[in-house]
Write a structure and sequence with these properties.
It comes from Sporothrix bragantina. Keywords: Membrane, Transmembrane, Transmembrane helix. It is a single chain. The chain has ten helices and seven strands. The protein has about 350 residues and is α+β, with helices and mostly antiparallel strands. The radius of gyration is 24 Å and the shape is globular. About 25% of the residues are buried.
Length: about 350
């Protein structure tokens, strides 16, 4: 889920392969350890805790426990753990307004993630974003991802030239990430990542993530919990911004082979898009985001209780006003001149 657009993850293959490989590796490691002690777990534990070199082993365990996020392969386990969880235990049907609802992921900063100021290093935010986005996409859009993964059979996306199912495996690529930092995060400070769909165009799905102080902001309800929603108060509104630590925007592209899949295919087959009249969600000419003149007043739409395509389009346009500025930064690469006017030098280590 965090690969570049040119290095796509084939989830339908990787998830089951990773699950089997991890299970077999764990089983083999456990078997090897117990075999050395004739299967006596108690004897192995006593030797581990009291035998020669115990101080070094216990200190190492202590270090690993308090810096778990920074250990080798833990990032991989976090990402594939999220994929496997939402693949093996897919969500129940959601109300359509949930398309713009938040997915909340908890985490905390380990000592190895801090910089020389003993604050969470800016670079480590991006690893957390990978995990938060994976939970959001695999949970919210999991049914659509699963459906598009069987496109050859279900013929959801067809070739405009041949009319046949578009070939290739489904992949999800990360195109870009922007992050704005407001406050620092101290070592071992817990925090939450609130991720939701911001908007989309004919190519990109834009996702917004807020890093928030843990426990300080409470949603009025959780979709599918069955519990009545509490009232959103003036105090809730007043305290929102002071608990935001950082905000990031990311964009994903969905691919079948080399063909770019319109994000609305994923949303429709996740049962999150109301039917849109006229040319639908992929009409509107080259922009392919629906006929723009069919919603004259994007702010004057019906209340969320009467959710229609107008609510969705109004929210998409509101998010796109911000996402379009982020997308404009794609042209920044054009400013690279290869040092034709000179360069400062070559330095290391890097």
């Amino acid at each position: 889920m965090a690969s570049s657009a040119k290095h796509l993850t084939n989830m339908s293959v990787v998830v089951p392969v990773f699950s089997i490989a991890a299970a077999l590796s764990a089983a083999y490691a456990g078997h090897s350890v117990l075999a050395r002690h004739n299967g006596d777990v108690q004897a192995w534990l006593i030797r581990f805790l009291t035998g020669p070199g115990r101080t070094s082993r216990l200190l190492l365990l202590f270090f690993m426990a308090f810096n778990f996020k920074s250990l080798p392969f833990v990032w991989t386990a976090r990402i594939f753990g999220a994929m496997i969880r939402h693949t093996l235990w897919p969500r129940k049907p959601l109300p359509q307004p949930a398309l713009f609802h938040y997915s909340i992921t908890h985490s905390r900063t380990s000592l190895m993630e801090t910089d020389y100021n003993f604050h969470k290093s800016n670079s480590t935010y991006f690893a957390d974003l990978d995990t938060s986005r994976t939970h959001l996409v695999m949970y919210l859009l999991g049914p659509g991802v699963a459906a598009l993964g069987q496109n050859a059979k279900k013929k959801i996306v067809v070739s405009p030239e041949t009319g046949k199912a578009m070939p290739g495996s489904l992949g999800v690529g990360l195109g870009a990430v922007f992050c704005s930092f407001r406050k620092e995060i101290s070592p071992y400070q817990p925090y939450e990542m609130w991720s939701r769909v911001l908007s989309w165009d004919r190519k990109w799905l834009y996702i917004m993530t807020h890093f928030v102080v843990k426990g300080k902001v409470k949603p009025v309800s959780f979709d599918g919990s069955g519990k009545p929603a509490r009232e959103w108060t003036a105090a809730d509104e007043a305290n929102l911004q002071k608990h935001v630590i950082a905000t990031a925007i990311s964009k994903y592209v969905f691919k079948l082979g080399r063909f770019t899949v319109h994000p609305t295919f994923i949303m429709e087959h996740s049962d999150l898009l109301p039917e849109r009249p006229g040319e639908g969600w992929r009409g509107g000419g080259v922009e392919a985001v629906g006929t723009m003149s069919d919603l004259d007043d994007a702010e004057n739409v019906s209340a969320p209780e009467a959710w229609t395509w107008k609510n969705v389009e109004s929210e998409r346009r509101r998010g796109m006003a911000l996402a379009s500025q982020f997308a404009a930064l794609d042209d920044a690469g054009d400013l690279f001149n290869g040092g034709k006017n000179g360069a400062l030098g070559i330095f290391g280590p890097g």
